[in-house]
Amino acid sequence: MYYPTYRMRRLRRTPLLRRMMRETSLAPDDFIYPLFVSHGENVRRPITSMPGCEQLSIGNLLPEVREIYRLGIPAVILFGIPSHKDSAATSAYDAEGVVQLAIRAIKDEVPDLVVVTDVCLCEYMDHGHCGVVQNGEIVNDVTLELLAKMAVSHAEAGADIVAPSDMMDGRVAAIRSALDDEGYTDAIIMAYSAKFASSFYGPFRDAAESPPAFGDRKTYQMDPANGEEAVREALLDIEEGADIVMVKPALPYLDVIKAVKQETKFPLAAYNVSGEYAMLKAAAANGWLDERACVLEALTGIKRAGADLILTYHAKDAVHWLEQEY
Ligand code: PBG
Tens of pLDDT along 49-81? Predict the structure, then answer.
């Protein structure tokens, strides 16, 4: 059937018809909101390249977390800014570490809120790499033990989901068996399966104070050119015990989101990263783009590609905008 019998515009005529025909819709349940938890008292440090985001100490984090819960956002993901960094990332698996204390405080305040933690050593290493460094190399197998300790310490503090973002081989299996050995059989693993060596992480590295002191992350994070390898990474993580797989970043990798979803049929999270956020914020601040319309369009695109969950710094704004009509 072709024009003039068939007219595509018929179904687009009125707002309600368009709502009826909409294939993809966003809801607060889709979002995970990232938070930067700083050591110290009374810290509220705005992150210049991520307008609207701040490093917060635990006291200032709690009102924020209550607000997120009230908005209907089901989960937060925590990144730590520790007081101390060294070459064994000791503050990453310290029971009194900044993230461990934050988890306990959040669970006291809003027990229902799902607490996700980023499991990666870069914020806690003096050299800023995601693994142990020996002779200028990031060594895989020694790193696994530290990641497993870190994940267990998060579960012990009450984290519901641990999210390894280091990209070492075998980390999901190492973390699953350590969690199970310690009795945390219900702790969920959300693996950053296809994490690309992206330049869109720039603003985050300022926010988390975690840029590598030498070299780059290309020996462990993925080459942005590779889609089939992303599917293999996700399948391996599932074999090792991942409950949720992740693709990161999101917008330049929508094809990867789609392929990983189709090949795995597993719950899939996409990380709408700091650089993607910064671009829209900067354009909106200049009056060059309509922030509300562009953010909702971008998030809808990520969901349409196949993401079940979206980690995004836009989450609070998006929920406000979704409460209005769009
Ligand atoms: C590493 C980590 C990074 C992000 C999340 N976890 C940065 C990196 O790998 O350099 C990036 C998040 C973002 O850009 O929003 N622990």
Answer: 999 999 999 999 999 999 999 999 999 999 999
The DSSP output letter for 189 is E
Residue 85 a catalytic site member: no
Query: How far is ligand 1, taken at its centre, from the CA of residue 272, in Å?
Result: 11
Q: 249: CA distance to ligand 1 center in Å?
A: 9
- Residue 217 within a domain: yes
In a domain, 8, yes or no: no
Per the structure, the count of domains in the chain is 1
3-state helix, strand, coil in the chain (%, to 5): 45, 20, 35
| Ligand 1 center from residue 202 Cα (angstroms) | 9
CA distance 125 to 132: 8
Q: Taking the CB of residue 56, how many other CB atoms lie within 10 A of it?
A: 22
Segment 190-229, tens digit of pLDDT: 999 999 999 999 999 888 888 899 999 999 999 999 999 9
Report the residue among 117, 165, 196 best suited for mutation to probe ligand 1: largest number of ligand atoms under 8 A from its CB. 165
Find the domain containing 90 and state its range: 25-325
206 lines ligand 1 (CB under 6 A): no
The CATH number given to whatever domain includes residue 298 is: 3.20.20.70
